[in-house]
Amino acid sequence: MGNDDVKQLHGMHGMHVVHDGPQGAPPLVLIHGSGASGGFWSPVVPALAGRYHVIRVDLPGHGRSLPAPSYDVPEQAGRLAGVLDELGVRPVTVAGHSSGGYIATALAERRPDLVGSLALVSSGPSLDALLPQPVVLQVLIAPPLGPLLWPIRSDAMLRRGLTAVCDRPVDIPDDLVAEVRGIGYRTFRTALRRNAAYITERSVPERLTALDVPVLVIFGAADHRWDPSSAHQYDAVPNARVEQLPDVGHLPMFEAPEETAELLLDFAATATAALH
């Protein structure tokens, strides 16, 4: 199939899936964070698809996926598991960006038979690591202005919101801005609340410690959403490797695509070799 992508909407699960790279290669699943879409992995996909069958999903209510009755993290992980079962791929390396890392972790908790290794990119370990959010994000998200501004957000406002958590200048393509615009306010707020509930119940490092799976943690040393020093909470996780990228914020895929892809490739190769 080369690097030409193939798109699918999986029936009963309603999740939009994009495939890149040869389907016979080891599978690498990429999960985006809240308020984004699978397209946010685009800068690193060409490098990854040269060696892996890259599977990108749009989470429920995001991108081109249908809304879901529940946005609980374990429920979303269950829907993703159903898609992977349909595809017949296992074991997979799963990489999640931001709250996508929580979906990846929950997938490993629910279906250890599916997940061979986990990579978490800019995934805050616990709620106490959350930094005060940029004003533009607070205005767009919080009532009473949020619900009023949501339908009339300009492209410029969306771009400011997306890049406010970055440390390096980034250019968000028009198609990704359009996908962000398509996310409903209620969907976004609900997903945020359910993500917070998941890491409040048990921190991510605590959850990972209970799993027997190799873990890679990539964190921008200048993340504007999560306290960069909180990356060291993952040091206590057995089989975990923590990498911090200097002068990189919350979107390493856009801010440092080459370094991010190299770390993912090295980790996936090591994890794949260990399974055989």
Write a structural description.
With 276 residues, this protein is of the alpha/beta class. The protein has a single domain (6-275), classed as Alpha/Beta hydrolase fold, catalytic domain (Rossmann fold). Helices cover 38% and strands 17% of the residues. It is built from eleven helices and eight strands. It has helices at residues 45-49, 73-87, 100-110, 135-141, 145-149, 155-163, 174-181, 185-201, 204-209, 252-255, 257-275, and strands at residues 6-10, 15-20, 27-31, 53-57, 92-97, 115-121, 215-220, 240-245. The chain has an eight-stranded mixed β-sheet with strand order 1-2-4-3-5-6-7-8, with helices on both faces. Helix 2 (73-87) packs across helix 3 (100-110). The longest helix is centred in the last third of the chain and has 19 residues, at 257-275. The two termini are 24 Å apart.
Q: Report the portion of residues in β strands.
A: 15-25%
Number of strands: 8
- What is the name of the CATH class? Alpha Beta
The amount of helix comes to 25-40%
- Domain module tally: 1
CATH homology group: Alpha/Beta hydrolase fold, catalytic domain
> Uncertain regions: pLDDT < 50 for 5+ in a row?
none
Rg (C-alpha, Å)? 17 Å
- CATH fold descriptor: Rossmann fold
Give helix and strand order, one letter per element, not per position. Answer: EEEHEHEHEHHHHHHEEHH
Q: Main beta sheet: strand number and arrangement?
A: 8 strands, mixed
Order of neighbouring strands in the sheet with most strands: 1-2-4-3-5-6-7-8
Question: Given the helix and strand composition, which structural class is it?
Answer: alpha/beta
CATH architectural group: 3-Layer(aba) Sandwich
So how many helices? 11
Q: Shape from CA axes?
A: globular
